[in-house]
Design brief:
Number of helices: 21
Shape: globular
Number of domains: 3
Largest sheet: 6 strands, mixed
Radius of gyration: 25 Å
Distance between the termini: 56 Å
Strand content: 5-15%
Strand order of the largest sheet: 1-2-11-10-8-9
CATH superfamily of the largest domain: Glucose-6-phosphate isomerase like protein, domain 1
CATH architecture of the largest domain: 3-Layer(aba) Sandwich
CATH topology of the largest domain: Rossmann fold
Helix content: 40-55%
Structural class: alpha/beta
Length: about 550
């Protein structure tokens, strides 16, 4: 780990000043004009990560040519990476250095996919978890009545939910064998979340996986207790409820006290953070859902790890993602990033990315304890195409804000609907960049033989400013390997940005504040609250009567 006395806040570095000058230079330049001035731009600003298993086929292609930058900007962004000594950061990340510097430990989730050795030789034995998952997938586990378990319900929240949920939604149908259990997820403490799953469940055939590293997460435990009561009501007070539970947790005593058999408590190492944990025992539901393809999922992530670790900065895809995001956030004053996957199977990708980016880099304190004077993580949001085209894309076309866009596009097969999906994604990126001028609007209206007065009236309403910067990520297909590469790409992007900004992407102290206040309210300690919160708590209590 680079020592604190070697740290310099990024805005004090020469490259930062050079980038600020570039931002002023390009402030009035339309994106489309960059293509007119540079015919080779599209090819030169396209990067790939290779697929080691299929020579000549990329694991992923990223097009950055629709971003509001040119070669001079790229050169100084890369220089910023060098001035922040990112190469040392990458080395620390992959060699067990304490990149999680506030908590004094490594962040070695890549060890779960074979990309680096576990810190201090302490491995994460997943053999028992894998044996359990495959026994469940193969129909070899039974509940308390002797009936085969055919339904797995994962109870978790945050990193114990979003990653495995995304993988299951994206891949379960592709790798289903007809006999493997159905997998559902419950995260919200709202009773309707669990209730909706239980309404379509058979208690004799259902197993709950309680995923909580500390086995102390309030929402998760409340749902687990409700699930246990549901089983007890259905199966009887004397039923062996342990046959219907497993846990992913480091607190074996707490899990067994709840009623989980010790052999069904699967730990994960301290050096695997929650939002980076889908590769670990937290991925148990995904392993059940996709079986042996989980190894392909790990292989895709490994390929991206190797690319990030070994590829020079000039062609390093995760680094470019990080640099372009920093450029948009800090120099172009673009405050949001829209994640737009053009695949129904990736419908949970924006939510997964929200946690990854905003919980990791939503910080203001630098490595030396001082406050940052630049923006860090953008606000991440999004939705699937083409559904979003009939909803929020209107704001992207004619609203008043610039928005950075990531189009995630699995190319897939030759099904006409799949081709239309890809065509729509590419067309949206192009149209949002180019926009439509008033002259073009007038010409379009004139082609409809409208009267001149009507053309004058309508033309301003058809104008789209354009100039929305975007990155397009193409995946040859959506399978386990390519999904693993995609998720690892964003993990490394987030690490690189955290390093560039001088913050720690591996802690999350901020979220504890709200939890502390919620506990105080639950204990009736309203005197410690502000007047508004205390009054609202009192009103809520009255409405419960």
């Amino acid at each position: 780990m680079v020592e604190d006395d070697a740290f310099t806040a990024p805005q004090r570095l020469p490259a930062w000043s050079a980038l600020a000058a570039h931002a002023r230079r390009l402030a009035s330049r339309p994106l489309s004009s960059l293509f007119a001035d540079d015919p080779g731009r599209a090819k030169r600003l396209s990067l790939t990560c290779d697929n080691p298993a299929i020579p000549g086929e990329p694991a992923l292609v990223a097009d950055f040519s629709k971003q509001a930058l040119d070669d001079a900007v790229i050169a100084d962004l890369i220089q910023l990476a060098r001035e922040t000594r990112l190469d040392e950061g990458i080395h620390c990340l992959f060699t067990g250095g304490k990149v999680n510097f506030t908590e004094g430990r490594a962040a070695a989730h890549m060890a779960m996919r074979g990309s680096c050795p576990p810190p201090s030789g302490t491995g994460a034995n997943t053999l028992a978890m894998r044996a359990f998952a495959f026994a469940l997938r193969d129909g070899k586990l039974t509940g308390s009545t002797g009936k085969t378990i055919r339904h797995l319900v994962n109870i978790g929240i945050g990193g114990s939910d979003l990653g495995p949920r995304l993988v299951c939604e994206a891949l379960a149908d592709l790798y289903a064998d007809g006999e493997s259990p159905r997998v559902d997820f419950v995260a919200n403490i709202d009773p309707r979340d669990l209730g909706a799953v239980l309404d379509r469940s058979d208690p004799t055939e259902t197993l709950f996986v309680v995923s909580s590293k500390s086995f102390g997460t309030m929402e998760t435990l409340a749902n687990a207790e409700a699930a246990r009561q549901w089983l007890r009501d259905a199966l009887g007070a004397d039923a062996d409820l342990g046959a219907h539970f497993a846990a992913v947790s480091n607190e074996v005593k707490a899990a067994t006290a709840f009623g989980v058999r010790p052999t069904r408590v699967f730990p994960l190492p301290d050096w695997v953070g929650g939002r980076y944990s889908v590769w670990s025992a937290i991925g148990l539901p995904a392993l059940v859902a996709i079986g042996g393809a989980f190894d392909e999922f790990l292989s895709g992530a490994w390929a991206m790890d190797e690319h990030f670790r070994t590829t020079p900065f000039e062609r390093n895809l995760p680094l470019w993602q990080a640099l372009v995001g920093l450029w948009n956030t800090d120099f172009l004053a673009i405050e949001t990033l829209a994640a737009l996957p053009y695949a129904h199977a990736l419908r949970s990708f924006p939510a997964w990315l929200q946690q990854l980016e905003m919980e990791s880099n939503g910080k203001h304190t630098l490595r030396d304890g001082s406050d940052t004077y630049v923006n860090t993580a953008p606000i991440v949001w999004g939705g699937v195409g083409t559904v979003g085209q009939h909803a929020f894309h209107q704001l992207l076309y004619q609203g008043t804000r610039r928005v950075a866009l990531d189009f995630i596009v699995p190319v897939g097969d030759d099904d006409p609907r799949q081709r239309a999906l890809v065509d729509n994604a590419l067309a949206q990126a192009a149209a949002l960049m180019a926009g439509r001028s008033k002259e073009a609007a007038r010409a379009q209206l004139a082609a409809r033989n409208l009267p001149a007065a009507e053309i004058d009236r309508l033309a301003p309403h058809l104008v789209s400013p354009g100039n929305q910067p975007s990155t397009t990520l193409l995946l040859p297909r959506l399978d386990a390997f390519h999904l693993g590469a995609l998720l690892a790409l964003y993990e490394h992007k987030v690490f690189a940005q955290g390093w560039l900004w001088g913050i720690n992407p591996f802690d999350q102290y901020g979220v504890e504040l709200g939890k502390e206040m919620a506990r105080a309210l639950a204990e009736g300690l309203t005197d410690a609250q502000d007047a508004s919160t205390a009054r609202l708590a009192g009103i809520a209590e009255g409405l419960r009567q």
